[in-house]
Amino acid sequence: MRRFGRTLVTAAVAVAVVAGTAGWATADSRRAITGPPPGADAWRADSVSGRRLPDPASATPREVAAFFAGLEESGRRRLLLRHPLVVGNLDGAPLPLRYEANRLAVLATGDARFESLAAPGRRILAFDPRDRGQVAEVFGDLEHAAHVSVIVPGSDNDATAYDARRTPHTGPGGMARALRSAASGDTAVVAWTGYTTPVGVGLDAADGRLARAGAVRLARFTAGLDAVGAPDPVLFCHSYGSVVCGLAARHTDASDVVVFGSPGMRARTAAGLGTAARVWAARGPSDWIADVPNVEVAGIGHGADPTSAAFGARRIPAGDVQGHTGYFAPGTRSLAAFASIADGVAR
Description:
alpha/beta; 8-stranded mixed beta sheet; 11 helices
């Protein structure tokens, strides 16, 4: 009975935190945007050179890659022009084709919120305009990279806010730029805002519903990288993004999983993630995430602290990190460690 009472108290603390105490903000519940983008039905009804097109909902990235490998350039261009939104999000399709398709898809929306994504020189690897929008952008030369890193962000990120220049080094776009600058020239970085993130730090951020949907998308995205010959990626997972990575880890071919500012990964230990990847963790001394109870009760909370000794992750120095979003600030020990991991030289 006493043990049951302690469980109720722990659950009450968790709910109190996510309901707005300790400086947290409540937020409306979001519906996870999943599945292929708009236009998938028209794509399925089409064909090229007498061949049926791979179903974007069920074809594996390797099947997609094989399909495009068998197409002449004229066939690829035809599909690009007729179905840019599908081609741009089709994991396994050739990277240059996806970049061009997403530029056309952004312009076709006519939505001022997204127009900067079509600027010359940007490499948009995925774009979905539904709801708040999802996007993945490449920094560096992904086609020829010796190393690849993927930034997986937490709450309040979408296709309009992921690269806010007013907060450099903090959002996924800024983190990707900072890592790209700190790493070697043959490392490419992808800012992947490819799932519906929570808004604020309310109940959506405290349960795993959006993370589970995001994990499916992240696993498919990494399979798409593999299908086009990219190296096994390093996943850099911030805040709620570390919950996504925790659920996706066993389904990816990541070489390393790096979490920072993490509320938990829905596993008791690093071994419990079921991945052969090396697992790393960092938390700065002033990061408010330390005030979040590391519990998981009735679906609320994300479990053990990845920086605890019992969890078993490799620790990353973060004593000079400021706040919850300062891990990629130039000159920090955390950024130097991140670059070493991204370049494949950390031990």
